[in-house]
Amino acid sequence: MIKINLFPYRAARIKENIRRQVSIYGLSILFLILAMGYYYLNFNREINILKQEKTAKQKELDSFKDITAKIKTIKKTIAEIEPKLKTIKELEKLKTGPVRLLDEIAMSTPKDKLWLTSLKESKGSLSLEGTAMDNETVADFMSSLQSKESIQSVELVRTKQKKIEKLNLNLKDFTLTCKTYAFKEKPPPETKKRKGRR
User: What is the pTM of this model?
Assistant: First the structure.
């Protein structure tokens, strides 16, 4: 009977299997290291790009700081100048307003049909008194005044018959009140707040 010793063959197979598994394991680790290195380098490159972009944006933002400061200064100057300009315009209006008002009243007065005897103005309230040939002339005078820019409203206070015996004339004395460009409504009085219920 022949006996064959298979142990060396089995041992060689086992060694081969172990060597193959160690090689696969080593190659896997090597591949993993290479993959991690690739992703690390890629991420590092992207981070550097982002840092460069951030630096560029920061420089651009810093360049706008001077412009922003100038804009703030200009806005502040405008805010300071606007009330002054408004005051100047109001003063100019008050300066030229009375002359323009008198001119418009003179232009509205019908010649040889209506005569003004009194003109009083206070805080934008104008009172006119005069004599006209008839009621129609007074109405025309009021309409003409109403159309002027310096006068906001015209109201008839009273009319009175006036007879001149020597000339055999029947005239009309009248009184008008007007609101002019300078008229300002009085603010309503502040009402006291009611105390809360106890």
Answer: 0.47
